[in-house]
Structures are given as structure tokens and as C-alpha cells.
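@channel anyone free to eyeball this complex?
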Amino acid sequence: MAMIEQIYVEKLSPNPAPANPPLPIIFIAGAAQTGTNFLDTPDGRPGWASYFISKGHTVYLSDQPARGRSFWFPGQGSIGYLGPPNSVSDLFTDVANNGNQWPQAKLHTQWPGTGRIGDSTFEAFYRSQMQFQTNAFISEEQNAQAYSALVDLVGDCYIISHSQAGAYSMFSQTLYSSLKWLTIE
Amino acid sequence: MVNLRTFTSLTYLTQVAFLGGNAQTNSSQLMDIVPKREVLYVGGRYTNITASLNSH
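replying in thread with the prediction:
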């Protein structure tokens, strides 16, 4: 017997707690990424966790099932990775120079540094990418169960989900009609 | 109550997570926040699938 599909959650609360705290926020990172995404930016600036804690929110930073600090049972589904560094650069960090792979690509100019191999900010980002469950059916089922359990624990809250995790906040929304959620790209 | 040990841990984790060889000074006031930190494991279920573990 084993226990599977649980998630790692890091709860950070303002200290001391504000008298009338706003709703807590659950963060879910996108593909290959973890709760550390929201601690700092890859070039060392404070991340969303610091910002929202400074506004009085308690934040819950999580790793999806089978990713990062959350357990993966060997053989369950299919484990993959985000992709080779040049592909990651074309899709995420140096989009403006990806050869116009789509009409708006040239507009993505805000990533710090070159966004390519050899740039310290890119490599800090790429170094933080983790293995993840690539079987979408297993991933969706496991995330629905795990984040429903987390919402049961937290109560009324916001969910901010990033990229691939957008579907999971929406799925939670169908289970908890009072949830407020936002998906970021 | 401010827990310096917790803050030290959080700072360490964030540095390890993203800075690596890219360490640099960050003077933002946001870094002065001292949150209370708790680690939870949530959800999960028991299962009888043990084949992979038993093979070792």
C-alpha cells in the first residue's frame, strides 16, 4: 500500500496577522513549474508571494501532483519535461526573436536579458523547471482531487493559476461556485 | 511574533530556487517582509499499487 497524489503546499502568512485580512490566495504554477515560481523572479526580484503578503493576504504556494516536492509513484502516467532550452527560449523567454512563429511574437519583449543559453537569468529560470505529469487525463483528475482538498482546508479564497494550471482552477470553480479565480499567462 | 529562523529559511530557499550563480543584491522593501511559514501536505489517497516499490 502507498499514498499517492498528495501535494506539497507552503503557507506564508503576514506576521503579525492583520486585523481584517483579505481572502487567502492559492497559487498553482504552470507546466514544469512549482510554488517557488511565486517567491522570486529569475533575476532576483521579489515575486507575487511577497507582494500579496505585503497586502495582508495569506498565500498558499503549491506543487502540482507528481511534480517538484509532490510525490510521484513510479510508473504512474508519463513523466516529461518542458523541452530543450532553445525551444523554451522560443516559446517563453526570447519570443520576439523566434522567427515570427506567430504574428504577435515580436511583441514579447519584456523578459530580462537575452532569454537564451548563456544568459544568467535564463539559466536561473531553466534550472528551476521540474519534471511533470504529461498524461493530461491523469493530471486533470489528480489536480482536481488535490486542489479540492486544499480548498476544503483553506475555505473561501482566490485561486491564481498560471498557464497549464488554468484548467485546474476552472475545474475547481465547478466544484466550488463561490471561488474567485484568475488565470495568468 | 517575528520568527527569524523561519525568515532565514525562506530567504535561503528563494536564493537557492532562482538565483544560483546569478546571486545579486536585492534592496527592495518587499524583502523585509517576515512571513509565518508552514509546510503542509494536502490530499492524497491510499492505493494498493506497490509493484514498482517491491521490485527493488
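from a first look: Helices of chain A lie at 48-54, 85-93, 120-127, 136-154, 166-175.
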